[in-house]
Amino acid sequence: MEFVVKRVYTEDDVKVLKRSIRKRIGRFEKVSKILKIRKCTDPDVGEAYLYLLNMQDGEEIREEIIIEDKKIFSALTPKRFEIIEVSNKFGPISIRELARRANRNYKNVYDDVFSLYRFFLINVVRSGKEKFIIGKTKGFNIQV
Q1: Taking the complete model, does pTM exceed 0.85, yes or no?
Q2: Number of folded domains in the chain?
Q3: N or C: which end of the chain has fewer CB within 10 A?
Q4: 121 is in which domain, residue-wise?
Q5: CATH number of the domain to which 51 belongs
């Protein structure tokens, strides 16, 4: 059984990724050199760089993730679906802002966000002191 997550990244999502990388590593030219010269130990850097390279003017990037871990069903609760809905509506959005808009306690939202992130149901990046949820989850499919 496979669980397929469909996600779309917009230009705003890529801007948050750029800010995140710029603060951690520097300019994208430096990121390109790091990826070419030596192995990059941070997969988020490579992922963000690929998104940037694939982003055309105003065009969305579509992604499908296949998850074969059956424990994913434990991560899907009504409150976590609400997190996905709010982040889709207002994204890219910080976890603090997400908690405010969902009228929930920050710590509970933070825990739920990272449960969803652990199973690749949402994408979280750090930008400065904040963590942002990027990408809009467009759907789930279960394939037997």
Answers
A1: no
A2: 1
A3: C
A4: 2-143
A5: 1.10.10.10
